[in-house]
From TrEMBL:
GO terms for molecular function: acid phosphatase activity. This is Alkaline phosphatase. It comes from Candidatus Amesbacteria bacterium GW2011_GWC1_47_15. Keywords: Signal. Residues 63-226 form the Calcineurin-like phosphoesterase domain.
Length: 298
């Protein structure tokens, strides 16, 4: 009886050892951290015509660009302003709702100038609610993976963009408080642009200085209905006003302009990684017309 008990104990010990040796250790059990998640986002602005406006080669391509987003299958969509053209009331957002509106649950909007065609941007906040930040302000921030993201309101005549404005003081504190190594900001008006229709936006000069000092690596904007990639100091700026409404022409290239496309609607695809990012401008025919990879500024 005593021998049977001893053999039973030996068998239990050997069984436990076998299970332990055969079990695969998790990365953190080996002293390694799991690989950080890469976040895929899509971005664009200047998007939707009124529901009953006719689509042609040069305008109202919001359904085609929405189809690109479906193919990209991003985890977040950054909306760069001028989402829905006149009339901008909540009940008139059907052109946007039936196209880019299908991504509303993963979308983060920035307010454009056309949203203010209705005083105070009323239709914009009626549509988005708290997703657009505090009503009447339009700035907010969040984290995606290893990145800190800030949405700002570049309609300076409505909310103020000077150094002592509430928004810029908030932005300064927000960027300073973030411990993320990589940072992105998005808005409607570009600081620098080679576009013939609008060009540089001097009114956001103070805001841009805060973005640069705050360690922002990437700024996304719209307003010009074209695609442009520029570099200014440590910031790479992407203008993606190609969401569907119409297309504009370029003027003379600005200093720092790296790529310019004015004949294609499309969206920007970005992969946000730990310490860097990849980008592709995907045109309406599915072709990647501009792409690259870059590290964040140390």
């Amino acid at each position: 009886m005593k021998q049977l008990l001893i053999w039973g104990i030996i068998i239990l010990i050997l069984s436990g050892l076998s299970v332990s040796l055969g079990r695969k250790k998790r990365p953190e059990q080996n002293g390694q951290s799991p690989s950080p998640k890469e976040i895929v986002i899509a971005a664009g602005g200047d998007i939707a015509c009124f529901q009953n406006w006719k689509t042609d080669e040069d305008s109202c391509k919001q359904k085609e660009t929405a189809a690109l987003i479906e193919q990209i299958n991003p985890e977040a969509v950054l909306i760069l302003g001028d989402l829905q053209y006149n009339p901008p009331a909540f009940t008139s957002w059907l052109g946007y709702e039936e196209s880019w509106g299908k991504f509303k649950n993963i979308s983060y909007p920035a307010i454009g100038n056309h949203e203010y065609d209705l005083p105070g941007g009323k239709g914009y906040w009626d549509y988005w609610g708290e997703k657009a930040g505090e009503r009447g302000k339009g700035w907010y921030s969040f984290d995606l993976g290893e990145w800190h993201i800030a949405a700002v309101n570049s309609n300076c005549g409505e909310v103020g963009c000077g150094k002592e404005s509430e928004q810029v003081r908030w932005l300064d504190g927000d960027l300073t408080a973030s411990k993320k190594a990589c940072k992105l900001a998005f808005m409607h008006h570009p600081r620098y642009s080679s576009g013939k229709s609008h060009g540089n936006t001097l009114a956001i000069k103070d805001m841009w200085e805060i973005l640069d000092a705050g360690g922002v690596d990437v700024v996304l904007a719209g307003h010009e209905h074209l695609y442009e990639r520029l570099k200014s100091g440590n910031i790479r700026e992407f203008i993606v006003g190609t969401g569907g409404r119409s297309l504009y022409d370029f003027g003379n290239p600005k200093t720092g302009s790296e790529a310019r496309i004015s004949d294609s609607f499309g969206v920007l695809k970005m992969v946000l990684k730990e310490g860097g990012y990849e980008w592709e401008f995907v045109s309406e025919d599915g072709e990647a017309k501009d792409r690259g990879i870059e590290n964040c500024t140390p």
